[in-house]
From TrEMBL:
Any single Pfam family the record assigns to this protein: adh_short_C2
Protein name, entry field: Oxidoreductase YgfF
Keywords for the protein's UniProt record, in alphabetical order: Oxidoreductase
Family membership noted in the UniProt record: Belongs to the short-chain dehydrogenases/reductases (SDR) family.
InterPro entries, per the entry: NAD(P)-bd_dom_sf, SDR_fam
SUPFAM superfamilies: NAD(P)-binding Rossmann-fold domains (SSF51735)
Coiled coil residues, start to end: none
């Protein structure tokens, strides 16, 4: 059967690296994007230039109707999904908790937590043997911030990623007997443009001395961990968290 993967937030950074790596492994790749169609289409073009199959679909994972439409587009184009990477995520400008308003916190949780839950729900409905599927694998992207707390910067983001850790534990146990493995990759500080969203594009270089390996990580290093967890080499691994964080 054709291997089909959906990577949410696949137009940049870790998501783009996962999409390109998956295509090299023979997956037909769907990436979702929120606003940057040009970046998403560039990822698709690169995959197609290397004789892979790919498409990009605009979807806001914080909106249930968008998520349902996204999965139906994959169904209509290629058929049953075999892998999901819950990568889409956002953060806001660095701030203390006593400086945050409700709208900010709701936006972070809607995308990072609710989006991942609804995407996981749709994937399970397609993959689970309980629903007539043939199994599959889900990898959720967390963050080392879920353990470190991100004080003075992104406590809301860190809390959202802690929810992802718990989602992985609970969901993995629910669907383990239904042919689905669910795992987490937890990156540390990685050279991506998400730091610009927080108001500090050079954040990795500022904090890298606090990392035992004394450097930031790269999207391709995270992508390799994701792809291993999706692969048959990880066939007895579920409910696990793989830190890709330079020892921090």
């Amino acid at each position: 059967m054709k291997k089909i993967i959906l990577v949410t937030g696949g137009s940049r950074g870790i998501g783009a690296a996962v999409a390109q790596g998956a295509a090299e492994q023979g997956y037909a790749v769907c990436i979702s994007y929120l606003h940057n169609q040009a970046a998403a289409e560039a990822v698709v073009a690169t995959i197609r230039q290397n004789n892979g199959e790919a498409m990009a679909v605009q979807a806001d994972v914080a909106l249930e109707d968008d998520v349902v439409r996204l999965f139906r587009q994959v169904d209509a184009t290629w058929g049953p999904l075999s892998a999901l990477v819950n990568n889409a995520g956002v953060l806001a400008r660095q701030a203390r908790v006593d400086e945050m308003d409700s709208a900010r916190i709701q936006r972070i949780l809607a995308t990072n937590v609710i989006g991942s839950f609804i995407c996981a729900r749709e994937a399970v409905r397609r993959m689970s043997t309980r629903h007539g599927g043939s199994g599959g694998a889900i990898v959720n992207l967390s963050s080392r911030a879920s353990h470190l707390g991100a004080p003075g910067e992104y406590v809301d983001y860190a809390a959202s990623k802690a929810a992802i850790d718990t989602l992985t534990i609970g969901l993995s146990k629910e669907v383990a007997a239904e042919g689905i493995r669910v795992n987490t990759v937890s990156p540390g500080v990685i050279y991506t443009d998400i730091h610009a969203s927080g108001g500090e594009p050079q954040r990795v270089d500022r904090v890298k001395e606090a990392i035992p390996m004394k450097r930031g990580g790269y999207p391709q290093e995270v992508a390799k961990a994701v792809l291993w967890l999706l692969s048959a080499d990880a066939s007895y691994t579920t409910g696990a968290t793989l830190d890709v964080a330079g020892g921090r």
